[in-house]
Design goal:
It is a single chain. The protein has about 230 residues and is α/β, with parallel strands linked by helices. It has helices at about 1-10, 40-45, 45-65, 80-90, 130-145, 180, 195, 210-215; strands at about 15, 25, 35, 35-40, 70-75, 95-100, 105-110, 120-125, 150-160, 170-175, 185-190, 200-205. It is elongated and about 60 Å long.
Length: about 230
């Protein structure tokens, strides 16, 4: 697993605060501030990396499903779709599909009809709490109550081991587990952020300024757009 973590770092998919207040820090989707961030798509967007990751994930899933044939592989929108497709080939799945976000609350819905009794597997590129894959399972079953969702979810990377708190109906199977590796980053409420107190500026649109943000690990004074 350490080899995979090093691959992520070498590809520029990991940003860590350089302990220099000239560098900015990141604002997470939750609104909390942090001194670290992982953008898995910086690694998975390269086809050879996607292929290697999907093979590793499919092998890990096969060891759990123990010969159960997978009829459908679902990916979560949007970042989970490429690795779901790639892993689907390795798993010899018959169909690939995806859930979709709708409305202001970005509720997940399924528009695919899965015949009764066919086996469904959900795959993510990354999950933290497990909430998104659980909502995906719920959406698939809401439309297809006769489908057999296997009790495993695949994810290239997870932060909470194989039993994240939001995943109620399945075990998570991953390639990279930062919890197992002992890798974690601090998270603070904005009013309690010591980096803000020290003069570091928070960046909200992290992925839009990723290349500049990563440069700050080498040069903390490198300018980062604050859009």
């Amino acid at each position: 697993m350490w080899e995979w973590w090093q691959r992520l770092k070498d590809s520029g998919a990991v940003w860590e605060f350089p302990n220099d207040m000239r560098a900015p820090h990141v604002v997470l989707r939750s609104g909390k501030h942090s001194d670290g961030f992982i953008d898995t798509l910086q690694y998975l967007s390269l086809i050879p990396n996607l292929r290697a990751a999907s093979v590793a994930l499919a092998r890990a899933l096969r060891s759990k499903t123990r010969g159960v044939p997978i009829d459908w592989v679902f990916g979560s929108p949007m970042a989970g779709i490429p690795i779901a497709v790639a892993a689907g080939f390795v798993l010899n799945a018959q169909y690939v599909a995806f859930t979709e976000k709708t409305g202001k609350d970005k509720e997940l819905v399924c528009r695919f009809n899965v015949p009764e009794g066919e086996n469904v597997l959900l795959i993510e590129e990354m999950t933290t709490t497990g909430g998104t894959p659980q909502r995906g399972i719920d959406a698939i079953l809401a439309r297809n109550p006769g489908a057999n969702v296997v009790p495993f979810v695949g994810a290239f990377l997870t932060h909470n081991g194989n039993t994240p708190p939001g995943l109620l109906d399945a075990e998570l199977v991953s390639v990279v587990d930062t919890q197992e590796l002992g890798i974690s980053y601090n998270e603070w409420e904005p009013a309690e952020c010591p980096l803000c107190a020290g003069g570091s500026i928070p960046v909200t649109q992290v992925k839009r300024v990723w290349r500049d943000l990563v440069q700050t690990m080498k040069d903390p004074s490198h300018p980062v757009p604050m859009a």
